[in-house]
Design a protein that fits this description.
mainly alpha, 61% helix, elongated
Length: 41
C-alpha cells in the first residue's frame, strides 16, 4: 500500500484523510461480507 505524506498542518486536516481511509476500508469489508458465499469452508 502506498504511504504518502499528509499535506495538512492542522490536527483536523490530518484527521480527515485518516477517517476517510477508515470509512472506505470498513465499507469495502462490509461489501465483501455481503458478497461472500457462506458455508463453503
Amino acid at each position: 500500500m502506498a504511504r504518502g505524506v499528509l499535506s495538512s498542518k492542522t490536527p483536523g486536516g490530518v484527521r480527515r484523510p485518516i477517517w476517510a481511509h477508515l470509512l472506505v476500508h470498513h465499507a469495502l469489508r462490509e461489501l465483501m461480507l455481503d458478497i461472500a458465499p457462506f458455508g463453503t469452508a
